[in-house]
Write a structure and sequence with these properties.
CATH architecture: 2-Layer Sandwich
Largest sheet: 4 strands, antiparallel
Radius of gyration: 14 Å
Number of strands: 4
Helix content: 25-40%
CATH class: Alpha Beta
Distance between the termini: 9 Å
Order of helices and strands: EHEEHHE
CATH topology: Alpha-Beta Plaits
Strand order of the largest sheet: 2-3-1-4
Structural class: alpha+beta
Shape: globular
Length: about 100
């Protein structure tokens, strides 16, 4: 399995409703792409102060590297990025393969 984490800081100009809409669109996009095995989302609630300003985490799981690689250029992912990317101030993506 591959875990694909997207850590985000949304622009300060976004309202809570705007952020909720981005979360809804991300979840819908993930649901519409067969290669996505699972999707989770959550805002940061750590008290450690080590997030470097990143406030939200989107976690997608893929069964294989090939599934992740098919997702990245997928037309629905590309269309989603056209809407999502302009709303973010900062982003970090981190993938890893789950050890068996």
């Amino acid at each position: 399995m591959i875990r694909h984490f997207v850590f985000v800081k949304f622009k300060d100009s976004l309202s809570d409703a705007d952020v909720a809409e981005m979360v809804r669109l991300f979840a819908r996009m993930a649901d519409e792409i067969d290669e996505v095995a699972a999707f989770e989302y959550g805002p940061n609630n750590s008290t450690e102060g080590l997030t470097k300003g990143l406030e939200h985490c989107f976690n997608l799981t893929f069964a294989t590297v090939a599934d992740r690689d098919a997702y990245l250029p997928h037309p629905k992912h590309e269309a989603f990025k056209d809407v999502f990317v302009p709303t973010i101030a900062d982003v970090m993506v981190f993938d890893y393969e789950v050890a068996e």
